[in-house]
Write a structure and sequence with these properties.
- The complex is a heterotrimer of chains A (483), B (484) and C (95).
- Chain A has 483 residues and is an alpha+beta fold.
- In chain A, 39% of the residues lie in helices and 20% in strands.
- In chain A, the strands form four sheets. In chain A, strands 3-7-8-11-1-12-13-14-15 form a nine-stranded mixed β-sheet. A three-stranded antiparallel β-sheet of chain A has the order 6-5-16, with no helix packed on it.
- In chain A, strand 14 and strand 15 form a beta hairpin.
- Chain A is elongated and about 95 Å long.
- Chain B has 484 residues and is an alpha/beta fold.
- Chain B has a single domain, classed as Amidase signature (AS) domain (Amidase signature (AS) enzymes).
- The longest helix of chain B is centred in the C-terminal third of the chain and has 21 residues.
- Chain B starts with 5 loop residues before the first helix and ends in a 12-residue tail after the last helix.
- With 95 residues, chain C is of the alpha+beta class.
- Chain C has a domain of 35 residues: Histone, subunit A (Orthogonal Bundle), CATH 1.10.20.
- In chain C, strands 2-3 form a two-stranded antiparallel ribbon.
- The chains are: A alpha+beta (483), B alpha/beta (484), C alpha+beta (95).
- Chains in contact: A-B, A-C, B-C.
- Chains B and C meet through helix 10, helix 11, helix 12, helix 13 and helix 14 of B and helix 1, helix 2 and strand 3 of C.
- Strand 10 of chain A pairs antiparallel with strand 3 of chain C.
């Protein structure tokens, strides 16, 4: 039973952890590169050695400020780091340096489209800077866990939403939007396989119309959009079933098991958490003045919403297409590069990019950056449609050949003899022949079966191997059949 | 030669009266002979010291010598020293060989100083008597049955016993100044942020500051100039110019305004100490200083404030000692929780555990506001008291400690009695102010210290006052009979 | 006693400290005395006083985003109680 159909309302808040794309760690000069040998990128500061001290990386402040401006938030003139104290082997100092009171970003917002296509505002409570922990690896040595601290100290921006999300679909739309924004800003690579972008979901349900929030469960460490959707759906159903059976939801941390597609309670800790947050005495308050904020604002790129509006307004794209193109900055840039270089209509460009290009990329599991057909080359191909050298249908064949590395559009058209027949005399001869070969259809057409025009066009194209200019064929057929 | 000061040794080396090898060999021999009874050292780096001395002699011969070339000193064992045992007075770090040098160690070494060894201390600098050390208490050269104070007790005892002319120390609540007072040495804790904390094993990060223990103010000036200055590896290090302390201390103190804190002479101060301090103030007055009374209304809150702030910070700072990456690890543990609890339970001594627990308590849910936050507010009040006082005076003077050296074991039963020994020194740490203790008298054969506190960045004024005082008095020259 | 045994046990667990039995009794006593002693702070006139976390009113300095640390794992791990294949080993962590 879906929640929407029942008498329950779902309330979700997300805490997204975006790894910031810095070269060095948040408080040390060790590299953040992914995939190094264990502990070779964990310097004394990352290891929490006696006597070492943290010094803040300037880029993380700039990146956090960029994010704050991008989501229309307040970038705090003064923010502080706090220590979150707990013991865990992947946490070398016995505390995580994070922000508690006075985070660097507060009170932001963004807009998503809900399932009905309506625009919906989602509040962003705060975004704060913190250091990532290391990794525990199990099974390498019998009875032991191995600790790799290469990831310890990697900068994270934790983005906390208001509990404004009302469905798993909302949550995914919101997370995608944040994902798009951080990549537009260049502050995170958003790589979910490598754990650079992940989230915790706080999920609760309440009877529809009820003001008070239900007890929530926190699902930890969701690292794909699919898992977010599935985990939330499972959890919502679990909570509703529980409540409808007269049970109670327990406030707890749960893990999503993607193999079984279920969430389960994490082993209860020996004690309740008491993190004993307090201001980190090794770090001083971060102060950001208006000049700094204005300078950062100058560096902001055009953001996804603005780009989407511009694609609709300036290029006349269908809203859905504008939305698809702007989800990914590289794709949007590719589209623009083609649109600017070709004489084809922007909507035609969009159709090609979304349809053929993205299709080919998906088929070969490639990213837009690795596209086998460059924007300039696609522009030439579209020019050949526009100038009637080839038809749209032939262009598909040319595109495939370009994708397979057979050369430029012009080379392929030339080599395969695909040039469109535009000589009216030549087309007229074929048209006459086709009408003569199909007298009964011609009679039917003349009797009012207009739809038969398609049959005649098909026959002419067949006879010319698709090379006849479709517009001319149409025009000539209509004229001849009317005689 | 062992009784010579750094300045005297420097001049002698320059004149060629002796070599650094002579100096170092002599002191190492003396340490070997006398430290058994004092227990001032945890590690003696004899071989390394002789190597460096040889190189210092070569450098001097080649004319490429640094400001401290060939001069011996010792480091409190709280400073990380590359490839040398660094224990912090704890079983936890019994086998810890630091892979790097502390900023203080690095700076002194690159100016040519020679490390003779690492000195004993209260465990993780938590103590005022040196009795919390895992390596046993240090004994006061003035009376071996008494404590030299702490936590830099090994450094102070070594300097007082003429085993070294100078030592580094750290001061979180009086850990340089109180032992200096109890051993007849000069101890200075600079302004917070003056000396880099990088590589100094943290006790309470917002209070810790490195300094020196010497026998004269001009030796302290010489070392402080080298140790001080901005370090980009410490976020709390401040980029403030370092004056030439040695050159500035020669100025007479005529017109210097010195404030006496009324509350300092209230009940609780040993009468003999009070007399000695008053006499020292009169001497400063004779030198041209202008005395007046100042008020520090929140003085009584200093110790309780400190015993919330310092344990809170230490409880977190010492969480890194978990038996995973370095330090003591318990044998035969059942699971991860057991590894933590047993390694830490065995690795830390009783006082350290108490402070970690006090700190854990004052930060825990439900108590944070009443203790930690309240203490931070009171810290502000105390800091404001000093700021107001320095509107009318240049320095504040008084006793360093409420009594002369006390007997080993005398104060170990009640933590509060021990804590109150730091009543006069803690305020400077809470407010981040520079402060100094200098010898100013004797009570029954035991030394008394004069405590001077100045506004931020006034190290040169403190050193100047102490130096001018030492030009006209001999207290600092007094040496325990057995160590002449 | 301002602190009871259960409280002290809870604090020791939060701080991951095992106390021997005799040590435990003494800790309850001394910790209580310390807490009683610092309780006097509640009398301080702190209405409207801003908490002070640092002795000097400075702001955080920022370092350039540059990799300055080279791998020194083998040297550093000489201090480690137990390692294998470059990993620090602990009793198996159960999640």
């Amino acid at each position: 039973m879906s929640a929407a159909a029942s008498g329950w309302e779902v309330v979700i808040g997300l805490e997204i952890h975006a790894q910031l794309a810095t070269k060095s760690k948040i408080f040390s000069g060790a590299s953040t590169a992914y995939g190094a040998e264990p502990n070779t990128q964990a310097c004394l500061v990352d290891l929490g050695y006696p006597g070492v001290l943290p010094v803040l990386n300037e880029q993380v402040v700039r990146m956090a400020a960029k994010f704050g401006l991008a989501v229309n938030a307040k970038v705090a003139p003064r923010s502080i780091f706090a220590r979150k104290n707990y013991f865990y082997p992947d946490l070398p100092k016995g505390y995580q340096i994070s922000q508690y009171e006075l985070p660097i970003v507060e009170h932001g917002e963004l807009f998503i489209r809900d399932a009905d296509g309506n625009e919906k505002r989602i509040g962003i409570t705060r975004a704060h800077l913190e250091e990532d922990a290391g990794k525990s690896l199990h099974g390498a040595v019998e009875g032991s866990s191995g600790i790799d601290l290469n990831r310890a100290g990697t900068p994270l921006l934790e983005i906390v939403s208001e509990p404004d999300l009302r469905s798993a679909a909302d949550a995914v739309a919101y997370m995608r939007k944040i994902h798009t924004i951080v990549r537009y800003l260049g502050i995170s690579d958003g790589n979910m396989q490598e754990g650079s972008f992940r989230c915790d979901a706080n999920v609760s349900v309440r009877p529809r119309g009820e003001e008070a929030l239900g007890t929530r469960a926190e699902i930890k460490n969701l690292n794909s959009f699919r898992f977010v959707e599935r985990a939330i759906n499972y959890e919502v159903e679990r909570q509703i079933d529980l409540l409808e059976d007269g049970g109670e939801v327990v406030q707890e941390t749960r893990l999503y098991d993607s193999d079984k597609d279920e969430t389960r309670s994490m082993r209860s800790k020996e004690e309740a958490n008491d993190y004993r947050y307090f201001p980190d005495p090794d770090l001083l308050p971060i102060e950001i003045d208006d000049d700094y904020i204005e300078a950062v604002r100058e560096t902001l790129p055009e953001l996804p919403d603005a780009k989407e509006r511009r694609f609709i307004d300036d290029y006349g794209l269908k809203p859905d297409d504008a939305s698809i193109l702007t989800v990914n900055l590289s794709l949007a840039d590719y589209f623009e590069a083609v649109a600017e270089a070709t004489s084809a209509k922007p909507q035609a460009v969009a159709n090609w990019v979304i349809g053929d290009l993205v299709g080919a990329l998906k088929r070969d599991s490639m990213s837009i950056a690795d596209s086998r057909v460059a924007a300039a080359d696609l522009a030439v191909l579209l020019d050949r449609i526009a100038d009637r050298t080839i038809s749209g249908k032939i262009a598909k064949e040319v595109f495939e050949a370009m994708w397979n590395g057979e050369g430029s559009a012009d080379d392929i058209i030339e080599a395969r003899g695909l040039k469109q027949i535009t000589d009216t005399g030549a087309i007229e001869a074929v048209v006459d022949q086709v009408i003569a070969d199909n007298p009964s259809q011609a009679a039917d057409y003349r009797a009012g079966k207009d739809k038969l025009i398609g049959f005649f066009v098909g026959q002419v194209m067949k006879a010319t191997q698709g090379k006849a200019n479709p517009a001319q064929v149409n025009e000539l057929l209509k004229k001849k059949l009317a005689d | 030669m062992h009784s010579m000061t750094l300045v005297e040794l420097r001049d002698g080396l320059q004149r060629g009266d002796f070599s650094s090898r002579d100096v170092v060999a002599g002191l190492l021999e003396r340490i070997e002979a006398r430290d058994g009874e004092l227990n001032a050292f945890i590690t003696v780096t004899a071989e390394q010291a002789m190597d460096v001395a040889g190189r210092a002699d070569d450098a001097r011969a080649n004319g490429g010598a640094g400001a401290l070339n060939g001069l011996p000193l010792v480091h409190k064992d709280i400073f990380c020293t590359r490839d040398v045992l660094t224990t912090c007075g704890s079983r936890m770090l019994e086998d810890f060989v630091s892979p790097y040098d502390a900023a203080v160690v690095e700076r002194l070494a690159s100016a040519g100083a020679i490390m003779l060894g690492k000195t004993n201390m209260d465990e993780f600098a938590m103590g005022s008597s040196n009795e919390t050390s895992y390596y046993g208490p240090v004994r006061n050269p003035w009376d071996l049955s008494r404590s030299p104070g702490g936590s830099s007790g090994g450094s102070a005892a070594a300097v007082a016993a003429r085993l070294t002319p100078a030592a580094t120390g750290t001061d979180t609540g009086g850990s340089i100044r109180q032992p200096a007072a109890l051993t007849n040495t000069v101890g200075i804790k600079p302004t917070y942020g003056r000396v880099s904390r990088y590589g100094m094993i943290a006790f309470a990060s917002s209070l810790d500051q490195a300094g020196v223990i010497t026998r004269t103010a001009d030796d302290a000036a010489l070392l402080l100039k080298v140790m001080s200055g901005f370090d980009e590896r410490d976020s709390t290090s401040i980029d403030h110019p370092v004056p030439d302390y040695e050159a500035l201390i020669g100025k007479p103190i005529k017109g210097l305004r010195i404030g006496m804190v009324r509350q300092h002479f209230d009940a609780g101060l040993d009468e003999g100490c009070a007399t000695a301090v008053r006499e020292a103030l009169s001497e400063l007055e004779r030198q041209g200083a202008v005395l007046s009374e100042v008020d520090l209304p929140n003085l009584d809150y200093c110790v309780p404030t400190y015993y919330v702030v310092a344990p809170a910070e230490c409880s977190s700072n010492l969480s890194r000692f978990d038996g995973v990456r370095f330090g003591h690890r318990a044998d035969n543990v059942e699971d991860l929780l057991d590894l933590y609890c047993s390694s830490r339970g065995e690795g830390f001594g009783a006082e350290v555990k108490r402070r970690i627990m006090t700190g854990t308590y004052v930060l825990s849910a439900g108590y944070y506001d009443a203790y930690y936050l309240q203490a931070q507010k009171v810290r502000h009040l105390i800091s404001d008291d000093f700021r107001r006082a320095f509107e009318s005076v240049d320095l504040i003077a008084g006793p360093t400690a409420p009594e002369p050296a006390f007997g080993l074991g005398d104060k170990t039963d009640d933590p509060i009695t021990m804590y109150l020994n730091d009543i006069y020194t803690i305020g400077a740490n809470l407010a981040g102010l520079p402060a100094l203790s200098a010898p100013c008298g004797m009570v029954d054969g035991l030394p008394v210290g004069l405590h001077l506190v100045g506004p931020h960045w006034s190290e040169e004024t403190l050193l100047q006052a102490a130096h001018q005082y030492q030009l006209v008095t001999d207290w600092h020259k007094a040496c325990p009979e057995a160590y002449k | 006693m301002s602190l009871d045994k259960e409280q002290v046990q809870h604090i020791a667990m939060l701080a991951r400290l095992r106390l021997a039995d005799d040590e435990f009794a003494e800790t309850v006593d001394k910790l209580s005395r310390i807490v009683d002693f610092v309780d006097q702070l509640s009398a301080a006139p702190t209405a409207d006083v801003v908490p002070m976390a640092h002795p000097l009113n400075q702001t955080q300095r920022l370092r350039p985003d540059a990799v300055t640390e080279a791998d020194d794992r083998d040297h550093i791990q000489e201090n480690a109680p137990e390692t294998a294949d470059g990993l620090y080993l602990v009793p198996r962590v159960i999640e």
